Amino acid sequence: MNLQTNSLLSKSLISGTVAGVTTALAASLAGKRETASYAAPLNATSHIVWGEKAAWQDKPSIKYTVMGFLLNHAATVFWASIYEKWFGPRAGDLHNSPLRPLIGAAVVTAGAYVTDYYLVPKRFTPGYEKRLSNTSLTGIYAMLALGLVARTLIERRR
Q1: What is the pTM of this model?
Q2: What is the pLDDT, as a whole number, of residue 95?
């Protein structure tokens, strides 16, 4: 897979996909630990489409789990586009300090958290908060930051 690409869309899709997978994995592992269900946190995310009932589904399903994963993925691609636009490497940047992309990922992740829990209506929150502890939410957002910056750090090593 060629991680070196020039298109903002391509970069955003790569970074967003990595972030989407890492956050979904973190949420699922936390769900297993806290609710005995890998699917519960992703199901809770689908409350955006299916309403409050979705937040309390424990079993994996196409209706709730796949929709929750897709909503999470769309959100991470959105945040990745902001990260890539503002903090992604430019031509000639690859030999500079990795602080800019790391700080950028932290800034975008903080913006995602504030947006998710303070700016949008409750119907549009990620839903993880319905099933997981604040500690797990912190881990999920940490994985978002790591996912956002992963492409940049890998590209820098090449």
Answers
A1: 0.91
A2: 60
